[in-house]
Amino acid sequence: QVQLVESGGGLVQPGGSLRLSCAASGSIFSISAMDWYRQAPGKERELVASITPVGSTNFADSVKGRFTVSRDNAKKTVYLQMNSLKPEDTARYYCYSPFGRVWGQGTQVTVSS
Hints:
The protein is mainly beta. It is 0% helix and 50% strand.
């Protein structure tokens, strides 16, 4: 059974940075791609970034050049580094394991002055 726990959200001013973490339990982490999604109030959940087991990454156009994603398989943790944050990045951010079909509980990111 895989469990995912996100952390690192908070309130940040426009232009600021945050790093989200997603810690996984279970034995499948190292063989699972990991995704970061976000959902703003009244909007559908959208895919923000993905990372394969060997570290290849993909990003939504809206965050390219500002966000990076990385993983530490030894720590079973995936990270989302968010720079140059904008108010439109405000959302609840979730990590997801497609292999285990498991969602984390999410962490809130609010970008506001």
